[in-house]
Amino acid sequence: MAARECRSILRMSPHPENQAEWFRRLPLERQVEMSREHEERLQRPLEIEAVARRRMRIEALWMGGVFALFAWMCSSFLGALVAAVLGTALGWVCSRLDLKRLSTAALGMAVFSGSQYLLNSSSVFIILVFPLGAACALLGWTREERGT
Asked: Is the pTM of this model over 0.90?
């Protein structure tokens, strides 16, 4: 796509962040793509809202699965079940607040550490906190890269 054509498209349907520094640093093709995506979202608000709610549920279940897996490695089935419920709730909150990778990882590590300390009252879970933080950061990164 020619640069002149890209600039004319950007003028017709600007992205809400088109004046932000981070947006102007993007390649011209990515700016056009984001502007088109924004225009499509404006045309289909109910469908976009339903997709966002579904995505929120999926992200919450992924976080619950991550918590259950790591809790199962360091405790019993009951601990994994409690961790799955806590992880799902935390995943929903992170998705609802649109938290990015670092804040998702920090909250995940804090909630997991606190819950495992209360359930097991041992420090076995300490070895798993950083890998869990990496998995939570991956979930936050996918939300961050999606840009919605």
From this structure: no
